[in-house]
Specification:
Four Helix Bundle (Hemerythrin (Met), subunit A), 7 helices, mainly alpha
Length: 122
């Protein structure tokens, strides 16, 4: 599987990632690191706690990392959560809607990590 094929499989935006990182070698390096990113775990663990600070910080970090890597589905969803819990913003989503978005990120993260591991171990 090539790096482009990996991106097709995970529904990522390879072109966006290349605009940011500019070289396959750098993209390869950073996509491999993504599989060990603990910030997603922090967000997933907030599903029942709903600590607004942790929800904002973890979703904001995920948004940035995923945007740089062209993982737009995760980035866009994390952005929704970050804006929901950004200090000073009024909440617009119900807790259930936030939980649904967290579960979506968890599912997409698992698919992405499984695919990255397949790419690495080929």
């Amino acid at each position: 599987m090539t790096l482009q094929e990996l991106y097709e499989k995970i529904g990522g935006d390879y072109e966006q990632a290349m605009r940011v990182l500019r070289m396959d070698k750098l993209l390869d390096k950073h996509i491999r690191k993504f599989a060990n990113n603990d910030v997603v775990e922090k967000l997933i663990n907030c599903e029942n706690d709903f600590d607004p600070t942790v929800l904002f910080e973890s979703s904001h970090a995920i948004k940035g990392v995923c945007a740089n890597l062209g993982l737009t589905k995760i980035s866009d969803t994390a952005s929704d959560i970050a804006e929901e819990f950004r200090p000073g913003n009024e909440r617009k989503m119900s807790d259930d809607e936030v939980k649904e978005k967290i579960r979506y990120i968890e599912d997409m993260y698992k698919l992405t990590v499984d695919s990255i591991n397949e790419y690495v171990n080929q």
